[in-house]
Design brief:
Structural class of chain A: mainly alpha
Largest interface: A-B, 53 and 46 residues
Largest sheet of chain A: none
Helix content of chain A: over 70%
Number of strands of chain A: 0
Structural class of chain B: alpha+beta
Oligomer: heterodimer
Number of helices of chain A: 8
Number of helices of chain B: 4
Order of helices and strands of chain B: HHHEEHEEEEEEEEEEE
Strand content of chain B: 25-35%
Radius of gyration of chain B: 24 Å
Number of strands of chain B: 13
Largest sheet of chain B: 6 strands, antiparallel
Shape of chain B: flat
Helix content of chain B: 25-40%
Radius of gyration of chain A: 18 Å
Chain lengths: 169, 262
């Protein structure tokens, strides 16, 4: 770091870059975009005078920015998708990984969730966060976080059941 | 409840597998730190920052005065390239009367074929990537691919068609003379709004302000000068005149291509 005032963030970069990358990559399905999101999230954290400096609070702060940037990415992509400008790179690394893992049904079911539901589910089951932490990162009430996760699980269950019926003879 | 637990276990197992499959790239932390360092190097200490702000204010005021004086006195042809002036919009004639010359139309199949034949090699050369041939862009293999004639448009002695490279959409711009189509430029982006196309919004990209003219010609009357970042709606064109590609900006006039791309 050049200035002493930026030195505080260095240990946070070292400890949080990778988990933040995993969260971003899971949300956007694109490693290059995920890295850009992580870099941008740290940049914004450094730029804001309101950024907390203690690890637990900073982690929430950083993850919240990651969620916002991932949401922005999806919005841009959805708008852009209408213009048929960008062909999907094939094979998609995440789809390929999911195919190898063999739970393609679950991967497919996760796509029916709304962005907020997906964020809540990923924080809860991918990052293994407690509900109060999910709520803190998403900046919503804990009961809302519980409702989001509950609703997401209902959707997943329903989708998986429909899939099974479709497959059954 | 039991079903939900099984579902949660299955979800956790799936996401755990996904987590193992996602491997952060080597050197991630180093790149993040480097970017932070670069940004902090740009952040000047207090006194210097105030000095810079004061200087910028003086320059801006002087530039604004110069720009207004220049636009008041301009009578002859002025080039369409960005002028080193103020970043304020100063309109001399707010309602340009010029209509788009020759409304754009979709390219015919044979026109599209000719445009791709003329444009693809130039685009590939500019981007330094090969042609995709019968394949398509994929991770580890960046290449250029024409995307079909449905988005290819022909204006006045100019046109464009759609292509793609890995992770981005591209537009290839061409002009036409008696000998056929000729490559002019290629621009790629991950999102709309950064590439001029008929019927879309675009941003003006200049260091000062960009001339808007009543006609697509270097000698045409200047009707406005738009500052950097102005969002404009491309309503017509493209037209190729005086060795320049022009776009018609709805309710404004004509602007050179270079001022509409980054």
């Amino acid at each position: 770091m050049e200035g002493r005032e930026q030195a505080w963030i260095e240990p946070l970069v070292l400890s949080l870059s990778r988990p933040a990358f995993k969260l971003a990559a899971a949300l956007v399905n694109d490693h290059a975009v995920a890295e850009e999101i992580v870099q941008e999230a740290f940049m914004r954290s450094l730029a804001s005078p309101r950024t907390p400096r203690a690890l637990p609070e900073f982690r929430r702060w950083l993850y919240h920015i990651v969620l916002n940037l991932a949401r922005e990415h999806h919005r841009r992509r959805a708008r852009f998708g209408l213009l048929p400008l960008r062909p999907e790179p094939r094979p998609d690394p995440q789809e390929e990984a999911e195919r190898r893992l063999g739970d393609a049904e679950m991967a497919h079911a996760l796509r029916v969730l709304s962005p907020r539901e997906r964020e809540a589910v990923y924080l809860r089951f991918f990052q293994d966060e407690a509900f109060d932490e999910v709520a803190a990162v998403m900046r919503i009430g804990e009961s809302t976080a519980r409702v989001l996760v509950h609703r997401a699980l209902e959707k997943l269950r329903s989708h998986l059941a429909t899939d099974q019926k479709r497959v059954a003879p | 409840m039991k079903t939900e637990s099984q579902l949660e276990l299955r979800l956790r197992a799936h996401l755990a597998g996904l987590g193992e499959a996602i491997q952060p790239p080597a050197g991630l932390e180093t790149r993040v730190l480097r970017r932070l360092r670069e940004s902090s190097a740009r952040a000047y200490p207090g006194v210097l920052r105030q000095l810079l702000a004061a200087t910028a204010l003086v320059l801006l005021t002087a530039g604004l005065a110069f720009g207004i004086a220049r636009l008041r006195t301009v009578s002859g042809p002025v080039g369409p390239t960005p002028t080193a002036g103020p970043s304020a919009s100063v309109t001399v004639a707010p309602s340009p009367t010029a209509a788009p010359i020759g409304p754009p139309r979709l390219a015919t199949a044979s026109e599209y074929g000719d445009m791709v034949a003329a444009g693809s090699p130039g685009a590939e050369g500019q981007m330094r990537i090969p042609d995709c041939g019968s394949g398509e862009p994929s991770p580890g293999h960046d290449c250029f691919q024409a995307m079909g004639g449905s988005e290819a448009l022909v204006g006045t002695s100019a046109g464009y068609f759609q292509g793609a490279r890995l992770g981005a959409g591209c537009w290839v711009y061409l002009y036409k003379d008696g000998t056929g189509w000729h490559y002019l430029d290629v621009r790629c982006a991950q999102a709309g709004g950064t590439l001029p196309r008929v019927g879309t919004d675009d941003d003006v990209h200049v260091s000062g302000c960009a001339n808007v003219r009543a006609e697509p010609a270097l000698a045409a009357r200047i009707v406005a000068c738009l500052p950097n970042g102005t969002v404009v709606h491309v309503g017509g064109g493209p037209a190729y005149r005086d060795g320049t590609l022009w776009w018609y900006l709805q309710d404004r006039g004509w602007m050179a291509h270079d001022s509409l791309v980054e």
